[in-house]
Predict the 3D structure of the following.
Amino acid sequence: MSVWERVTGQPAVVAELQAAVADPTAMTHAWLFTGPPGSGRSVAARAFAAALQCPDGGDGTCHACRTVLAGTHADVQTIVPEGLSIGVAEVRELVRIAGRAPSQGRWQVVLVEDADRMTEQASNTVLKMLEEPPARTVFLLCAPSLHPDDVPVTIRSRCRVVGLRQPPVDAVADVLVQRDGVDPALAAWSAAAAGGHVGRARHLARDEDARLARKAVLDVPVSLVSLAACLNAADDLVGAAKEESDKASAELDGAETEAVKQSLGVGARGPGVAAASRGAGQLKELEKRQKSRATRLGRDSLDRALVDLAALYRDALVVATSGGGDVTLAHPDRRADAEELARRIGPEGALRRIDAVLECRTALEQNVKPQIAVEALTVALRLPS
Ligand SMILES: [Zn+2]
């Protein structure tokens, strides 16, 4: 399977990248992949990296392709933020490597997923490199949009922009069936429920808990009939997000801590005082990173719930203003809820509630305590009696 087959529903992007691979003289040193969540920015960037290193333009089967896709190619460096941001120390290390000639591949490729999470200092370090790129180095940056909040204008202006679109629901369902072996009916449902978001669709298709969590979130709007119901719903939303992130963190943390302890020989006899104190420092550093990642996982989980909620109110708005015509909904399986909401709150009520959800997202970004932000939200979402 060629590396391009992993890039779902993006024929124009694939054609552009293939052309760049085929004609190295037209190569650009900095690329910026943008597109909505789930459109496959990092998948496209990685496929491109593989094709650049592959002697056959990305056949997907040779050693170069396989190692790039597995993340072990010596000349493809990747930064994925684990905490809330990509710091200058991580980027400096990367820039140091980027300055070298490729050791075996044709290019030295630097791939920054979530470039929007770079700190200002980190961005400035990357920018210096983009101003005078080494001859064989290619930067691939991924960010949700071209908004200056995501990518500073100075960096954007030095990049060739590759815009991905939300893949069509059918294309996503096809991928789930053919690549993940998901049952066609479940694949179609998951793809529709995820609105063309590939990763989310896969998660829904594979994980029963994810389907139940989504259901719990979408059950909220029509349940908000009293103040008590609003406060309960807030507890449930915050609790579910915490539970999900605790589960994910525990899996990641346990393995890491064990690995560090083993490499330090903690528990073995007589490591010596110096080694023991160095080890304590390393473990402390690891704990700090894990805490930052847990915070991010919790925020991501809550944010996903808020996106689902906002989409249901948008569906209600669409239903309320369409006059009963056939309309495409973000949550097609929850049409009955959208219709009930439309009847009870009308288009203005739906708009007000969409705003309330967006305000809650902003508050969470600004580090307002989740419980407080979400309680304020559910109270604002309460149905008229
Ligand atoms: Zn290959």
